Amino acid sequence: MFDFSFADLFIEEALFIILGYFVIFFIVATIIKNNSIVDIGWGLGFVLVAWALFFIGDMSVLTLEKIIVNVMVSFWGLRLFYHILKRNVYQEEDFRYKKWREEWGKWVVIRAFFQIFILQGIFMYIVGIGVFYINMVEATTEPYLVALILGIIIWIIGYLFEVIGDKQLKNHIANKNKTQKLMTQGLWKYTRHPNYFGESLLWWGIFIYAISLKLPFALIISPIVITLLLRFVSGVPMLEKKMRKNEGWDEYEKATNAFIPWFPKR
Predict the structure, then answer these.
(1) Number of alpha carbons in the 13 Å side-chain half-sphere of residue 111
(2) Which of 46, 170, 230, 244 has the fewest CB atoms within 10 Å of its CB?
(3) Per-residue b or e along 138-164, where b marks 16 or more CB atoms closer than 10 Å to that residue's CB
């Protein structure tokens, strides 16, 4: 039913575009001495690569399906780009990148190139592989309509979790009359990281959308990688290390799931 081969997932056009994209960011970051601008480029990069591949590939094949997945990625990527840009554009280099700059010393330029920019490019390729593959499909195929619709629905739920979670947190931070620093209401009552969960879920939706077009099941590497990154590497652990200093964190942590939403424990 499905092709499990990973060999088909090599799309050189996507690799070259991503490499060029992050080289530009690296040059700018080196000039202004602020490597944290790489975060601004994360969401926007998916959008640019997806639409570039759409015009490079055969636009006469699965045209509507390609446009739909690119629109989904554009909604997510452009919102994330604006969200991070607005937050970071006039700020100093993020504390994580400052720490690495100090630790790397005279090797900061070369290590930043490989360990920040190229590494993020590799992750962009892996996470976006489903979208990139869809845009380069050359053979027509009759999609599994139920799976295609299911993928879109899952993407919408994930997107709403991310958008609503970010909005609720923003309103909480702006509320000068709040009685506690921690955000524990709304979606945050059911998961300590609704925005991270939402981002993971929307990529699972894109994967289901992709296999509805009978594309390789190996594309599952995309949602698996982004879920692992958010849950165990760059998302939840780094943020919670900072949040544990807040009053009431222990009670919140015991009562509320870290990632997958569920009713709070008594």
Answers:
(1) 10
(2) 244
(3) eeeeebbeebbeebbebbeebbebbbe
Helix (H) and strand (E) counts in the chain: 12, 0
Instruction: Report the alpha-carbon distance of residue 204 to residue 208 in Å, rounded.
Output: 6
Q: What is the pTM of this model?
A: 0.92
Helices marked H in 89-128 = 95-104, 108-112, 119-127
Angstrom distance (rounded) from CA 243 to CA 48? 34
Domain end marker among 114, 140, 166 = 140
C-alpha count within 13 angstroms, C-beta hemisphere, residue 134: 30
Going by C-beta distance under 8 Å and a sequence separation of 6 or more, which residues neighbour residue 264? 189, 190, 255, 256
| Number of compact structural domains in the chain | 2
